Records
---
Amino acid sequence: MTAKLLEGKIFAAAIKAEAKKQVESLQQEFKVTPGLAVIIVGENPASKVYVANKHRSCEELGIYSEVIEMPIDSTKAMLLAQIDELNHNCKIHGILVQLPLPPHIHTDEAEILDFIDPDKDVDGFHPINVGKLATGQEHLVPCTPMGCIKMLELAGIEIAGKNAVIIGRSNIVGKPMFHLLLARDATVTVCHSRTKNLAAITKQADILVAAVGRPHFVTADMVKPGAVVIDVGINRIAPKKLVGDVDFEAVKSVAGAITPVPGGVGLLTIAILMHNTVKAARLQLSKTI
Ligand SMILES: Nc1nc(=O)c2c([nH]1)NC[C@@H]1CN(c3ccc(C(=O)N[C@@H](CCC(=O)O)C(=O)O)cc3)C=[N+]21
């Protein structure tokens, strides 16, 4: 058996086409162009792919985009001042602070993210948006997990009643993924580094989400035949070699459907970022009119 390949570019194109239509209607109705600002502190080679893809997508869709490169030794105060400016900048509807931050301000991460206007929080990391997601009031939702959900929906894969297992409990992927799947009536289990008998749990999964950050972590013996396997991992194992968390070659002969890396959910992350930027612009317009 060979799994159906869930190609990110097909789903991403559908999400972006919808966002593009909305950009055009905002321009016609309100003479407003949605704008996205990305703050990058220091040089991070991994960030470059993401920023380049994001920039290209903005151009494709007619979204105004600003990349703010700040020096590696930027202080917390400098970052807060930059965010404050963007919070009040009416050309900017979405703000994203690229993570991870450099070590000297790493502990300030929560304070920095909390300073972003929740209505401009296109990453969905602000506690207000996290709380809304957790209480069934989805507002601006983290891009990667939302991309996974949109992909399942567009592929016609039912979520309700399914056993979903997530490996990884990060604030960026694992936890929001839990809420999104639960809200869509899956039975959800979250596994992590202290989970016992991991394979026994993952083998129960109809939908398996891998967000661990370790290459080839999910092996064929951990997967139920016919399961949908979503690989959220982005592991650079050589300068030009990117792999996910799933042993793709082995797992594809057990799974029913599988996402590749690259070319999988990473592309959906960008597409949802575009969608969130348009949504944020709409939100802000509805508050000023
Ligand atoms: N505040 C914040 N929000 C983020 O959403 C965020 C972040 N910080 N920090 C870094 C990670 C990483 N990330 C990626 C998204 C898409 C691709 C992507 O487009 N991947 C393509 C291309 C990969 C390639 O060709 O190298 C693919 O998987 O096919 C990569 C990486 C967002 N992140």
Note: Residues 55 and 273 are 11 Å apart (CA to CA).
---
Amino acid sequence: MIGWLGGAYLWVLALHIISVIAWMAGMLYLPRLYVYHTEAQPGGEFSEKLKVMERRLLRAIINPAMIASWTFGLMLFLHLGAWSMGWMHVKLTLVVIMSAFHGYLSRWRKDFERDANRRSQTFYRMMNEVPTVLMIGIVIFVVVKPF
Ligand code: HEM
């Protein structure tokens, strides 16, 4: 499989970076909406507006962008034969944690949807930092390739 993308490699890399930017934009913003949501009166106008924003952000941007990031990323992975690269193992581990965090964001959205959130604002403020830290690690491993 190594080199199978041929001249399309750079196009796939560009598509990977574009989809990763969209995924990260949503992952960085959604927990911030949850911070605001803890301040809203359940059933009130602000809360209902936040529910629509959260649902659209997750379904229209974050979910498709994650699928595209994985698809293009795995194409690059096969092209490079990246299983032999140490940095790639660390990057993939961090990306798997990012994907699991995506799953938690989705679960928490459903709690807000049902007016059933019981987590505090402090909790969401802390969770808000998780994708930032993961993203910094991923970019350092993929660009600097420390090992
Ligand atoms: C979803 C699963 C992912 C897979 C399987 C994957 C895999 C890859 C592979 C194999 C490359 C090519 C590396 C090279 O050309 O040297 C790459 C490039 C890149 N990836 Fe990912 N990636 C994923 C997600 C992410 C995420 C979440 C980020 C950022 C938060 C990211 C950021 C980058 C960047 C910035 C590059 C360009 C590096 C360069 O050309 O120097 N990737 N990725």
Note: Residues 13, 16-17, 20, 24, 69-70, 73-74, 76-77, 80, 82, 95, 98, 135, 138-139, 142-143 surround protoporphyrin IX containing FE (CB under 6 Å).
